[in-house]
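cron nightly-structures :: item 1 of 1
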Amino acid sequence: MPEWNDKGIVLSTRKYGEKGLITNILTKEHGRHLGWISNNKNVLSIVQPGNLVDVFWKSRLVEQMGNYKTELISSISGKTFDNKFKLQAIISLCSLLEKILPERQSYPEVFKATEAFLNLLLIDNSSENFWIEGYVKWEIGVLSSIGFSLNFEECAVTGKKYNLYFVSPKTGKAVSKEGAGKFAPKLLLLPFFLGGAKVIDSNFYKEILAGLNITTYFFKNKLLLSINDDKNNYLPSARNRFIQMIGKL
């Protein structure tokens, strides 16, 4: 009987019948993986989105969904329960991974980056919400790990490494104001915290939204279109709610 033990991050859990749950877990070595688990109060507290778990999977056949046994390593959701903003970030993160990652395909770099961001949420208790920059960089890292690398180091037109204002929606590369020319209105704005030039009338949350606008474009128009049809290139509503919360700050 096939079986394995791995470290995982809970993405979602839904009821299955009267006594069961189907839990979706991003594992370190086995990718995004589904498993059935017996429903009880102790288990429900463990399989909350964002929680870090030790997971044992076993099945009669490798192609079957199989059964999970889980032990809690760190209750990320419990430790951020009193911060609705951070909780929404966790739900956004989990729903995005559930949407874009193929099942049972290993992405160790995605797992590593996700674990690092979740730990950042626990460390950063400042009122300035600097951890949101980490969220944007996490999305950029996910795109890169899946095969859609963005390059903000130098201008794609002039090769210069300064005065960068834009990102090309075609190439994902930075573009300077000089290099943009008449095409500037068609380009995406590159925020300062991602290597762009400083804009006088900007602020922290405008910069964050500009960064998320970049990742939104490449998720919808590059990644999702490559794996789905036009009707299924929508991004999770949980991520949309997270962006709306940022827009109100």
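cron nightly-structures :: done
The chain has two domains: 3-77, 80-247.
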